[in-house]
Specification:
There is one protein chain. By secondary structure, this protein is an all-alpha fold. The chain has two domains: about 55 residues, no CATH class; about 230 residues, Orthogonal Bundle (MetI-like fold), CATH 1.10.3720.10. Helix content is about 70%, strand content about 0%. Helix 1 packs antiparallel against helix 14, helix 3 packs across helix 7 and helix 10 runs antiparallel to helix 14. About 25% of the residues are buried. The C terminus is likely disordered. It is found in: Cell membrane. This is Putative aldouronate transport system permease protein.
Length: about 290
């Protein structure tokens, strides 16, 4: 077996990618180290140390022990899981309809979708729509918000166009209707794009904080990302440690607030970090498939 030739360009590209990876990997590991460090020893951390100073879970106990944080975490999970599921379903079914050759008015519909993708509505218009639908301060406002992303819809259409028409025609001859075709043939064959588009939607739903802070006004319906911004960016410590029942046997004043911030950020990152290993192997093939016609 002939070994691969190592060129200067490949070496430089490898070094560049390694440095780029380190710029993302080192800060994340440093956050974990700071969050896991003991409050009495966390001041010993210097720069981007990767190992915690002592092991303590007190920062996570403080953050997760706050009922407001627990409620916000469950709200974020609900919005992400339910919202992603609905987004995938309606994006796929819209892509299926728009890829039918006998669809009347397909061109005007596509022009309309591209126009609204380029000229997005402002926050005032979106707020008034949510108000008219009586969805303000409801988790469903974030679940239903931007149910279909036009860019993702176009990507899904490219995948569905690759499904042989003869396969669908054979199913029609056997008596299958559109819903049967969609559920029993299209959805299983579109597994890779479903996972890819699903990851895009999940990340967008999980990380959305600006619209959440506008549409969700009560503390009962707040999400983790809003609390994270209040605590980390705006330095509002009352949002995190203001509850009177937090760790009654410990003095919260002795805790290091930079470690509490790190623990809060880690808690917000963990769900997405768990999602990546599951879907990452489908990511590249999912984006590139259908892009080249033979």
């Amino acid at each position: 077996m002939v070994g691969k030739k190592i060129t200067v360009s490949k070496t430089l590209i490898g070094l560049l990618l390694t440095l780029l990876t380190l710029t993302m990997f080192v800060p994340i590991v440093n956050l974990f180290a700071r969050a896991l460090s003991h409050p009495d020893q966390v001041h010993q951390l210097k720069g981007y140390d990767l190992l915690p100073k002592g092991i303590s879970l007190i920062n996570f106990q403080v953050v997760l022990g706050n009922p407001i944080v627990g409620k916000a975490l469950m709200n974020s999970l609900f919005i992400t899981v339910v919202g992603t599921g609905l987004c995938i379903f309606f994006t796929t079914i819209a892509a299926y309809v728009l890829t039918r050759k006998n669809l009347v008015g397909k061109t005007p519909i596509m022009i309309f979708l591209i126009v609204i993708m380029i000229f997005e509505p402002g926050i005032v218009q979106e707020y008034m729509v949510m108000k008219d639908l009586h969805l303000l301060d409801s988790l469903w406002s974030m679940v239903l918000y931007r149910m279909i992303n036009v860019y993702y819809l176009i990507i899904m259409m490219r995948f569905l166009e690759e499904i042989p028409e003869s396969l669908l025609e054979a199913a029609r001859i056997d008596g299958a209707g559109h819903m049967t075709l969609f559920i029993r043939i299209v959805m299983p064959l579109a597994r890779i794009p479903l996972l890819t588009i699903g990851m895009f939607y999940a990340i967008a739903k999980w990380n959305e904080f600006f619209k959440s802070s506008i549409f969700l006004s009560s503390r009962e319906n707040t999400v983790l990302q809003v609390l994270l911004r209040q605590f980390v960016v705006e330095r509002d410590t009352s949002a995190l440690v203001g509850a009177a029942n937090l760790l009654q046997n410990n003095n919260i004043a002795q805790l290091d607030f930079s470690s509490l911030k790190a623990a809060t950020i880690v808690i917000a990152m963990i769900p997405i970090l768990m999602l990546y290993p599951i879907i990452l192997k489908y990511y590249t093939s999912g984006v590139m498939d259908g892009g080249v016609k033979e």
